[in-house]
Predict the 3D structure of the following.
Amino acid sequence: MKAQFKRGIVELCVLSELAIEDMYGYLVINNISKYLDVNENTIYPILRRLTKEDYFTTYLKESPKGAARKYYKMTKKGFNYYITLRDEWDEFIGGVYEILNKGGKKSEEIFKRFRKRTD
């Protein structure tokens, strides 16, 4: 997947996670990495940039295991940004699916139509 395309999607995923609840960086990484191939080198720069742009604030919270953790909290500005991006994403992905699904929704259907057309 192209790096720039992936960065935009991962940013939306970070915003989505923090729209649900405040989280520390490692938890954001862990949650997203269940579905996408990401690591701290991808997520922490996004968290820093979005904090610098006032979409998040941070605070320290004691951890039952070791040092205090830095939590990220979405601001109202961040939530509005998230909703805007989410609306744009929904419109974009809806159009993409309309195009992709013209030939069928399952690989077998697509291959069947292609073979029929090319035989």
The longest helix spans residues 76-100. The longest strand covers residues 56-61.
